[in-house]
């Protein structure tokens, strides 16, 4: 999504940030530059639309909410807060005494705790191995990257900046072997990080027995039961919600069905106003990466797009990935 | 606390929704302005419902003009609103009868023309279609943006991970609007834009 050439300048003009002289100069420029004039008209229209939104909201308030409950006086709220403050000043002496008593009690409690608590005995024995009561539910991904596997490079930053803590770049860099399909797969698996909890992002006040299939699938995905998530969601359908597709895309990816994953992520990545749009772009890129060299064309197109998109959250990751793959 | 014009202007221009709402409500609930508007519009051949429509529309233009610093302080705010109602009535009638004449003397010279600040119905319809293409979250974000909320405030209000993310989303929402405009040849033609 390229930013229009004159966006900032026009914005400054439309929002009255230019001096009279600068405004006049800008208007002259616009009169002689058709592209600038077009951008100005469009950007002005955007502002008109935003004004219209405010107007609609205001009319809604006048027509409904203000009749039922008039807006509160914001100055009265502040005055009330001030009254509380003045009362506190009046009672300053009492407050000081109360604070002193509280402090003494706190110190006494701490001293009592220090004198009565024995330090824990240091037991020099290995930790007990816990035996799981039931087999782990996490499915093993089809392509695993054992620790001994030669990893060409590890990412400097986690893929999902918001949810994932930074990974330590403590793996030894070794000379890069010639790229092969397995290397791309390993790279894709290595760069993949699980999305933030899908179940918690789905709001549901339903009782557990009434959970929707999507919510159950989201829980299955969160807990690593990828096949179960796929079963719960069923096969892709034209009227699927983007959340279903997103969950299904991840489940496909983790079960090694990279082509199917790409199809799901591709649909979300095509509409920037869908939830997880940016994430879907990144996971789509990883799905292409896993299928290299078959998907070379798609991979390069998307990687370049992300690397050149200053508004993408994955711009740097895409740049790094392009370098690695090239 | 004395409610002065200066205080009300400051509230409307403050960018704080609570203050703006409260200040606008002072005019909306002012029985004398409303009664005057109703009498005036009735005297000009309008109906009670017309008066309410015109009054609400005038409040919207009044709000916008004050926020954008168009009020020049040549009269009291009350007089200014009344003159906007008058212009609003002319605009309203023109929608129904395009041959309605606009008589400047009706304004008693209190304010400059505000007719241009009323959106034309045609433009409103086209813009409304574009707005409908945005989800509620985008609309909310752009309302805050237009009210000059900082990106930090928008981040907090809408739960973005950072002010930068709020900025990105604001830009994306605007791009979406722009796309709807560009995809609308009638609008582009009306605005003489050649994309």
Low-confidence runs of chain A: 118-173, 204-208
How many angstroms does the end-to-end distance of chain B come to?
A: 54 Å
Mean pLDDT of chain B, as a whole number? 84
Beta-strand residue fraction of chain B: under 5%
Using only C-alpha atoms, the radius of gyration of chain B works out to 19 Å
Measured distance between first and last alpha carbons of chain A = 24 Å
Percent of residues in helices of chain A comes to 55-70%
| Dominant shape of chain B | flat
Major pleated sheet of chain B: none
Q: Residue share in helices of chain B?
A: 55-70%
Give the largest chain-chain interface (CB within 8 Å).
A-B, 38 and 53 residues
The biggest beta sheet of chain A, please?
A: none
Strand content of chain A: under 5%
Q: Flag low-confidence runs of chain B.
A: 104-112
Give the radius of gyration of chain A. Answer: 29 Å
Oligomer status: heterodimer
Helix and strand pattern of chain A: HHHHHHHHHHHHHH
How many helical elements of chain B?
10
What does this structure look like?
- The complex is a heterodimer of chains A (326) and B (195).
- Helix content of chain A is 59%, strand content 0%.
- Chain A is an all-alpha fold.
- The longest helix of chain A has 35 residues, at 34-68.
- Chain A is extended, with a radius of gyration of 29 Å.
- Residues 118-173 and 204-208 of chain A have low confidence and may be disordered.
- Chain B has 195 residues and is mainly α.
- Helix content of chain B is 67%, strand content 0%.
- Chain B has 10 helices and no strands.
- The longest helix of chain B has 20 residues, at 48-67.
- Chain B starts with a helix and ends in a 5-residue tail after the last helix.
- The relative contact order of chain B is 0.08.
- Classes of the chains: A mainly alpha (326), B mainly alpha (195).
- At the A-B interface, helix 3 and helix 4 of A face helix 2, helix 4, helix 6, helix 7 and helix 9 of B.
